[in-house]
Design goal:
Elements (H helix, E strand, L loop, with lengths): L1 H4 L35 H8 L7 H12 L4 H4 L2 E3 L13 H12 L3 H7 L4 E8 L3 E13 L6 E12 L5 H19 L2 E2 L4 E2 L12 H22 L17 H19 L13 E3 L8 E3 H5 L77 H4 L8 E7 L9 E2 L34 E7 L17 H6 L10
Parallel strand pairs: 1-2, 4-5, 4-6
Antiparallel strand pairs: 2-3, 3-4, 7-8, 9-10, 9-11
């Protein structure tokens, strides 16, 4: 019954404030999707365990769902999947050669036509039925269609991303792809079309599927950056990818995208939930054994793992100096950093990098304002009410006196002649050449309240005096 209806009753984590009307007894209450029921085989493989070898459904659906979140104009430039090609084409040996010859003799015309409609193609390819690699094609337009129709039929750049870094495997995939596209699809190739994209090394036998998704996502992010910048193409696409890969995190992200794709396929008459599970069964075997759900899904310990070092980090930002102080204000900013309470609503700020701003030299009469640091960074461990922080000039300027942070005199304006909180100003490019005298932070105890003098207690002679007050002595009239 469940196979015919394509659903089962489950126990989901819920709360008293849940706004969803759960369908406890399905019967005729479940609305069938308008097209077809979602294919959840990929989601099943992700839900089984944290290290299950993934089938193509999970990888292709996750990449497609992520691509749907990009701008529509960029989506139209990206094609996914190779429909109509026998998977044995990507097998090494005679079986792969035979499958390639058959694919050339009987070409998948619809699949080849789809490849001509987009500038980029991102293709997860399963080699030898047990290892995923990612193929990325960048194409250029040529008049190759009916009536010299302009199509994306010229292969300008190709990259094969193999996490095993197996040069023989990558060469096989590249040569088979080229033979199929040239002979079956009449594509043309540039002379220098091969591109090498560095990726971190795979050291297991099951993470190739999540890695294919992770690499495709990073490349899609780079295409988005080019699209936002108005750049049609740049070799920036082929730069080294991230050396960090957390398989549990990636699998969780893929599961969420596959689940959301199922909600979309259900015409959004479905919701993502947390199902209570005790056991799972090995579904890829005829008589699979039951396993404890928690043991198969518990993440590995990544606390001691570090990203693999990229071989070409020349385009990465420089590390921040150890003595860098984010509370200093550049001279051309016009004042101290605005606090959340003093920031005007609706004020737009530029996202230009500080290093790209013009660095003008200050005049001889220019005096930088005293920066106001974060109060908890002034004296760690000092509790409120214990001590006050004051700033004193090195030149002993007694006319202005010290500034007490948090005092009522803070609004009188800056009085110091030099920047504070930095011992090595050469690391800060926006400081003046001659910074002037330094400022020091001094912890000053709060003054204790002085005892008030006691008032004299009046002497009361009688009860009448206590009521009417002391009587005045009568004096004789002169």
């Amino acid at each position: 019954m469940s196979q015919a209806l394509r659903y089962r009753t489950a126990q989901n984590v819920c709360s008293a404030s849940c706004p969803i009307q759960h369908i406890a007894i399905p019967m005729n209450q479940i609305k069938a999707p308008s097209n077809s029921w979602p294919d959840v085989r990929g989601l099943h493989s992700l839900n089984y365990s944290r290290d299950k070898w993934l089938a193509g459904d999970a990888i292709e659906v996750a990449i497609a769902t992520y691509t749907r979140g990009l701008p529509q104009a960029l989506q139209e430039k990206i094609g996914l999947g190779i429909p109509g090609v026998n998977p044995k084409v990507w097998h090494r040996g005679s079986a792969g050669n035979d499958a390639l010859n058959m694919a050339i003799k009987t070409p998948a015309r619809r699949g080849l036509a789809r490849l001509r409609t987009t500038e980029y193609s991102i293709l997860p390819v399963c080699t030898d039925s047990d290892h995923w690699v990612l193929v990325v094609l960048h194409k250029e337009r040529r008049p190759t269609g009916p009536g010299n129709k302009i199509e994306w039929s010229h292969i300008a750049q190709v990259a094969v991303l193999d996490p095993y870094r197996d040069s023989a495997r990558m060469r096989m995939v590249d040569e088979r792809m080229q033979a199929w596209l040239k002979q079956a699809g009449k594509f043309t190739y540039s002379n220098n079309y091969r591109r090498v994209v560095w990726i971190p090394m795979q050291k297991d036998t099951t993470s190739c599927g999540p890695r294919a998704y992770w690499h495709a996502k990073q490349l899609l992010d780079r295409l988005l950056e080019l699209h936002e910048s108005g750049v049609d193409y740049s070799d920036y696409v082929w730069k080294d990818l991230s050396g960090w890969f957390n398989e549990d995190f990636v699998r969780g992200e893929m599961a969420g995208r596959c689940a959301w794709d199922g909600v979309r396929a259900m015409d959004y008459n479905a919701r993502i939930s947390i199902e209570c599970v005790n056991r799972v069964k090995e579904y890829d075997r005829p008589k699979g054994a039951w396993k404890k759900a928690g043991e198969l899904m518990k993440p590995a310990d990544f606390s001691q793992m570090k990203p693999e070092k990229r071989p070409n980090p020349q385009n990465l930002p420089r590390p921040t100096p150890s003595n860098f102080n984010p509370f200093l204000t550049p001279p051309n900013s016009g004042g101290n950093p605005a606090t959340p309470s003093s920031t005007n609503a609706g004020t737009s700020t530029s996202n230009t990098s500080m290093s790209n701003l013009p660095q003008s030299q200050p005049g001889s009469n220019w005096k930088p304002p005293v920066p106001v640091p974060h109060q908890h960074q002034i004296a760690p461990g000092v509790t409120a009410g214990g001590k006050e922080v004051i700033v004193i000039d090195d030149d002993g300027d007694k006319d202005n006196g010290p500034i007490v942070i948090g005092d009522d005199d803070d609004n009188k304006g800056p009085i110091s002649k030099g920047p504070a909180f930095s011992q090595n100003p050469q690391h800060l490019p926006f400081l003046p050449v001659n910074p002037g005298p330094k400022l020091h932070l001094v912890l000053k105890p709060k003054p204790q309240p002085q005892p008030q003098p006691k008032r004299p207690i009046p002497v009361i002679d009688s009860i009448d005096d206590s009521i009417e007050g002391p009587k005045k002595k009568k004096t004789k009239k002169s």
